[in-house]
């Protein structure tokens, strides 16, 4: 236990925001809230920071207090042992969240709970001494860290109260069940004299009425909890949907209600938001507070939120129509930052600091990349720099698309599989390449959103708009950028420049013709491409480093400076990762900055699957880690709205004295809380970047496409991608057949 206290104190010191005093709040303008009281919504931590550590463990509770708003409310779900001791755990069955089945393998029993037969290990079959002396906690949600399993003790209610959390909320879910087995939650609470208990909630009307007199005397709020609308409330045997119709009746015995978040903002079968219900305004009219439950960072909710958990919280408190009075969350720091840092933020609020928000194919997390819609969304979201990865067509048209292979980003696989070819110098698998098609042929296709976590994890992006938008030529992109409120553009020139397609010349010509009077970044992984822009010192040249590195020695820095003013590096080149834990910080930014080289980091995404546990499954904490923690000069992101919102917030300025701050995570501290045996194996350090890896051979001569364009013939043999695949790659053929089948089914 002492070891855990020491390690945990290290974690708190280095990785999360220390609690601030209420007096510090005076440095921010007062916000007007549409809550019942007019005060800011409450943050209620379900089992402490249960999104990271086992529920209601001392570690989860301490981290919740240290990383959240000063007025945090700690929620404990009450369970009772055979001898009437109370402890904190949500599920009445212990086998999913503790090690009890290991100690008592034959202890499984079946009980009827609210009309359903439940099988498992139940607390009421064991004494307090047995539970507290033998059983430890485990994480019961598989997407969360398991390395802390079996190392943290079950928390008695008294233990949590002794830590004196800012506020304490006791949830009593199973009063009728325990009463049936001669255990009384009400008597247990009376034995505590209600001391330190600010709120008591229950889905059972009878229980709340039974303690009403004592609660009023103790000035403890009573909250009625709604369950599934079709479930029956145990006391009245009425459906919760029926009880919801008469909120005035609830006001007789409770001061507020809890509802699952879908009661307020329903979600349709396609996972898009429906219009809101009137439950919040109805509750407020009845004089009831209303709390929303079910908030987590690590679950797909609605596509409207673009995988950004803060956006979901804001939907409930900053929609201009109503605000809930509080959230019940497994990730209380995220709820805290939404309320304290992001609510009521105006679109024209200037960003703090000089960090650039640079897009990756526009706002490609919301729309197909490099389309007019993706670029417009990026502008609307406040991006500083929008990007175009330049590709060439067979007839010499320069346009924007993530790669020369059209299969991932267009519908080419459904109609043009016979044009699949092999180009080993670009990629190992077959593709349908832009330089084998005319611009007219490409325009006949539809764009296709890229969902990097769809195939393996089933997480698509914005399916409703997966084929929305139009492709943009480079000339149109520059015209668009000139007319919009962006700081500049990033032009990315990829490996196809080696095929003699004349992309460099096309970019130079387009930039000259556009007369763009904004910042221009020219990016490439090829030093010879960057060297071709040396004569244009007004352009910032960016070397893209597509492999993991851990340092940049002085000779490497000197070589980079010959070709570039900035580098674009992978996230894992700044913070090393092992099994979704941040294990170390490299010297890359420090080394580059010493050489006066700017550092951009890529690619940032909102999906929690791409975010380490150290960042709380929250893209905002990842941004804070790279911007405030590593000092990068720009972030390259597919969700610019998330980055812009963070940089507009005063909470991004760590030098301001505020009641809450979004602090960067410190690599290695979280994983150190686990026992040595449970920690992931140490990975080899990233190698330093060698100077010779920066240098590339000269570009090949540009082929004459004009003759072929005029005649409509094929490009010269030197330009043609390998042998045309008369029998296309099997996997691509299967993909095409599947896509065609889906289209036919949709048409039927």
Automatic annotation (TrEMBL):
The keyword Acyltransferase does not apply. This is glycerophosphodiester phosphodiesterase. SUPFAM superfamilies: PLC-like phosphodiesterases. Coiled coil: none annotated. The keyword Metal-binding does not apply. One of its GO terms (biological process) is glycerol metabolic process. It comes from Brassica napus (Rape). Residues 41-339, 355-647 form the GP-PDE domain. It holds the Pfam family GDPD. Keywords: Glycerol metabolism, Glycoprotein, Hydrolase, Signal. Its EC number is 3.1.4.46.
């Amino acid at each position: 236990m002492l070891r855990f206290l020491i390690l945990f104190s290290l974690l708190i010191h280095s990785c999360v925001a220390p609690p601030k005093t209420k007096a510090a709040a005076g440095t921010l303008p007062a916000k007007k809230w549409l809550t019942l009281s007019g005060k800011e919504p409450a943050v209620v931590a379900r089992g402490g920071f249960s999104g990271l550590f086992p529920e209601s463990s001392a570690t989860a509770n301490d981290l919740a207090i240290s990383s959240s708003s000063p007025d945090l409310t700690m929620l404990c779900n009450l369970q009772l042992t055979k001898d009437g001791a109370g402890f904190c755990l949500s599920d009445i069955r212990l086998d999913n969240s503790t090690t009890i089945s290991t100690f008592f393998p034959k202890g499984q029993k079946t009980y009827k709970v609210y009309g359903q037969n439940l099988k498992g290990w139940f607390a009421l079959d064991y004494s307090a001494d047995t539970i507290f002396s033998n059983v430890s906690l485990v994480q019961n949600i598989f997407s969360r860290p398991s390395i802390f399993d079996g190392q943290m003790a079950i928390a008695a209610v008294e233990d949590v109260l002794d830590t004196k959390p800012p506020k304490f909320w006791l949830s009593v879910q199973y009063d009728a069940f325990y009463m049936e087995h001669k255990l009384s939650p009400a008597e247990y609470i009376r034995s505590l004299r209600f001391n330190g208990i600010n709120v008591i909630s229950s889905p059972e009307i009878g229980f709340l009425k039974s303690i009403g007199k004592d609660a009023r005397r103790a000035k403890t709020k009573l909250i009625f909890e709604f369950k599934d609308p079709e479930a029956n409330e145990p006391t009245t045997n009425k459906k919760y949907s029926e009880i919801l119709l008469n909120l005035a009746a609830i006001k007789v015995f409770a001061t507020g209600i809890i509802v699952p978040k879908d009661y307020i903002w329903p979600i349709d079968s396609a996972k898009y938001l429906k219009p809101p219900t009137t439950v919040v305004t109805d509750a407020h009219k009845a004089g009831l507070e209303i709390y929303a439950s079910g908030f987590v960072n690590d679950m797909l909710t609605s596509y409207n939120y673009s995988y950004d958990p803060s956006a979901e919280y804001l939907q409930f408190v900053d929609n201009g129509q109503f605000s809930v009075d509080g959230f019940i969350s497994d990730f209380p720091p995220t709820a805290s930052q939404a309320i304290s840092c992001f609510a009521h933020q105006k679109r024209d609020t200037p960003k703090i600091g000089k960090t650039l928000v640079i897009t990756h194919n526009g706002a490609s997390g919301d729309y197909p990349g490099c389309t007019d819609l993706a670029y417009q969304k990026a502008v609307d979201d406040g991006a500083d720099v929008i990007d175009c990865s330049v590709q060439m067509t067979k007839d010499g048209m320069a346009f924007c698309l993530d790669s020369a292979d059209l299969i991932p980003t267009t519908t080419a696989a459904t109609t043009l599989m016979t044009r699949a070819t092999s180009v080993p110098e670009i990629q190992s698998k077959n593709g349908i390449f832009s330089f084998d098609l005319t611009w007219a042929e490409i325009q006949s296709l539809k764009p296709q959103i890229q969902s990097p976590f769809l195939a393996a994890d089933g997480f698509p992006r914005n399916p409703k708009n997966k084929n929305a938008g139009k492709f943009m030529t480079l000339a149109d992109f520059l015209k668009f950028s000139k007319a919009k409120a962006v700081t500049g553009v990033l032009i990315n020139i990829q490996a196809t420049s080696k095929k003699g397609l004349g992309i460099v010349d096309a970019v130079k010509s387009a930039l000259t013709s556009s007369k763009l009077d904004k910042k221009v970044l020219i990016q490439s992984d090829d030093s010879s491409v960057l060297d071709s822009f040396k004569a244009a010192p007004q352009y910032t040249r960016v070397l893209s480093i597509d492999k993991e590195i851990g340092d940049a020695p002085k000779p490497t820095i000197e070589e980079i400076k010959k070709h570039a003013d900035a580098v674009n590096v992978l996230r894992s080149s700044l913070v090393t990762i092992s099994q979704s834990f941040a294990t170390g910080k490299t010297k890359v930014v420090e080394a580059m900055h010493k050489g006066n080289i700017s550092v951009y980091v890529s690619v940032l995404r909102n999906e929690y699957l791409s975010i380490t546990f150290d960042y709380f499954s929250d893209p905002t904490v990842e941004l804070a880690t790279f911007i405030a923690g590593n000092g990068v000069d720009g972030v390259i992101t597919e969700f610019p709205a998330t980055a812009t919102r963070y940089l507009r917030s005063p909470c991004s300025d760590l030098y301001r004295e505020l009641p809450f701050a979004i602090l960067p995570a410190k690599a290695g501290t979280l994983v150190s809380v686990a026992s040595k045996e449970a920690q992931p194996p140490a990975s080899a350090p990233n190698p330093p970047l060698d100077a010779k890896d920066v240098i590339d051979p000269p570009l090949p001569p540009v082929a004459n496409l004009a003759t072929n364009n005029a005649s409509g013939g094929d490009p010269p043999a030197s330009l043609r991608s390998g042998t045309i695949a008369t029998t296309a790659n099997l996997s691509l053929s299967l993909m095409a057949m599947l896509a065609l089948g889906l289209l036919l089914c949709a048409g039927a």
